[in-house]
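Below is how a single chain appears once it has passed through the pipeline. First comes the sequence as given, then the structure the pipeline wrote out for it. We keep one example in the README because the format questions we get most often are answered faster by looking than by reading.
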Amino acid sequence: MTTEDVLKEYRKRLSIRETARELDISEGTVRKCLITHGEIETAMTRRIGALLQEDVRRRRFAGFWASRPPA
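Resulting structure:
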């Protein structure tokens, strides 16, 4: 079974529990596949995404100042 199989089954059922039962895998495995492929978001994944974006902005800002000649 592939993650695509999990996604296909989830899209039919729109239920993590029912998908897990149908595929005989744990709900956690289904959830992990869905989060990994961006099919669902949780408060935690939204927070992680925000932190990653913040880090990217900080690195760009730091790179900008590092590349400027001294005054």
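Helices lie at 3-13, 16-23, 27-36, 43-67.

See the next section for the split statistics.
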